[in-house]
């Protein structure tokens, strides 16, 4: 349950700018509360507490945002195709901004890798980062996105298009292949989602 130390009045203005209308709090201690998807933000005197599922988008609106982030992602499939999951980690100069994982529909390993990239970019965009440096141990995804490999699969072509749309949301971006040990946290999170799911 993320706790964001902030001025609740400024946080409310950020939400209203994004088209989210906060409501009155449920108790005398709550200044306001707002919902987006499955997440709820509750404002107190000097902080906002975000609870529920998929809190990243709501958190992104409440935080100052901006700046540069390193984005790590991974996707995994057991069976190829089979049960699949993704993991992501977003790091700034202050440390880990957010991380998470979730099971996804049965799919192949390559599709799971693309799903991991797409979700990580959506989270980074939700946080308001202006620049992203994305790292992955999936050579196929990295080289397809960069245009070094052809994308023969219609499903992967569709996912590449979606990823490129998300990259276009940032002022600048880079995508680099890294060894698995440098992507270990995202890899572990993806694998943990199999046990949690």
UniProtKB/TrEMBL annotation:
Molecular function in Gene Ontology: nucleic acid binding; RNA-DNA hybrid ribonuclease activity
Gene3D superfamilies reported for this sequence: Ribonuclease H-like superfamily/Ribonuclease H
Residue ranges constituting the RNase H type-1 domain according to the UniProt record: 65-195
Superkingdom to which the source organism belongs: Archaea
SUPFAM superfamilies: Ribonuclease H-like
Cross-referenced InterPro entries: RNaseH-like_sf, RNaseH_domain, RNaseH_sf, RnhA-like_halobact
Protein name: Ribonuclease HI
Organism for this UniProt entry: Halovenus aranensis
